[in-house]
Write a structure and sequence with these properties.
The chain is of the alpha/beta class. It has ten helices and ten strands. Strands 3, 4, 5, 6, 7, 8, 9 and 10 form an eight-stranded mixed beta sheet that branches. Strands 1-2 form a two-stranded antiparallel sheet. Helix 1 crosses helix 2. The relative contact order is 0.16.
Length: 265
């Protein structure tokens, strides 16, 4: 069966995929043996990995509530991963039922599961697309069905840019997306780092996956926000970005930065 030019039967289960590893670490069921093995190797290499993915998920939910609370009614989520509940559209529409969400991911299993989940929704779309080709994402007709780029958009790049190498020019990718957004839009971004611990063993796990892991420093991640104004507290470790409860144990070890920023011009 094909949809939007992809064949759902052509799902590669021979190598772990970052979205499915993430799903496994979250306790999800939409993963395969190769993803489970990689997840266990990752947890051994970085003992706080499971805490970290949950903290990243909590950051995402807080950030979505923030942007919706500041008037945004359309969200473009690139690198969405598997549809673990509560999803972005569930979190957003709990605050404002008229929020529209376009999900984009490059894994056919994400598109297959997402399409089944969202089949009855008129306010969400899921698209098979790749962050490495941002213009194709922006021009995709199913994205355009949901997103009006003349009105403020919340762009979500959560736990995805670290799967782009420097050679793939992630800053240029973000700039292309930024330039398509009108004033009043937001960027929500999180990114893995080795600022707090040596993560070479974790990187080795992803070298066997469909995308390698590129860790970046605080200064390198902050550059992705060029052209935006970071909201308080700026770029922070994700458990400490506007926490709404006590941060989990070992939060100081979690190797993820997160931030939200507004485009003012």
């Amino acid at each position: 069966m094909t949809q939007d030019g992809w064949d759902a039967t052509h799902i590669d289960t021979s190598r772990p995929h970052p979205a499915r590893i993430y799903d496994y670490l979250l306790g999800g069921k939409d993963n395969y043996a190769v993803d489970q093995l990689a997840g266990e190797e990752l947890a051994a290499a970085a003992p706080e990995a499971r805490i970290g993915v949950r903290a990243n998920r909590a950051f995402l939910q807080r950030a979505v509530r923030y942007v919706v609370g500041h008037g945004v009614r359309q969200i473009l989520d690139i690198g969405t991963g598997l549809p673990t509940s509560p999803n972005v559209h569930e979190t957003a529409q709990e605050a404002a039922p008229d929020v529209r969400v376009a999900y984009v991911d490059n894994d056919p299993i994400v598109a297959a599961h997402g399409s089944a989940l969202l089949s009855r929704s008129g306010t969400t779309r899921i698209v098979l697309g790749d962050l490495r080709d941002p213009q194709a994402v922006l021009d995709h007709p199913r994205v355009r069905e949901i997103i009006d780029f003349d009105q403020p958009v919340a762009l979500l790049l959560v736990a995805v840019l670290h799967f782009l190498t420097d050679a793939e020019k992630p800053e240029q990718v973000v700039a292309t997306l930024r330039d398509a957004l009108p004033a009043g839009s937001f960027l929500v971004l999180s990114h893995a780092t080795d600022d707090f611990a040596d993560r070479s063993a974790a990187q080795a796990v992803y070298r066997k996956a469909t995308a390698a892991l590129t860790l970046r420093s605080h200064a390198q991640v902050e550059r992705f926000f060029d052209g935006f104004d970071l909201v308080e507290p700026g770029l922070a470790q994700i458990p400490f970005w506007r926490p709404d409860s006590t941060p989990p144990p070992r939060s100081a070890e979690i190797g993820f930065y997160g931030g939200v920023a507004r485009k003012t011009g």
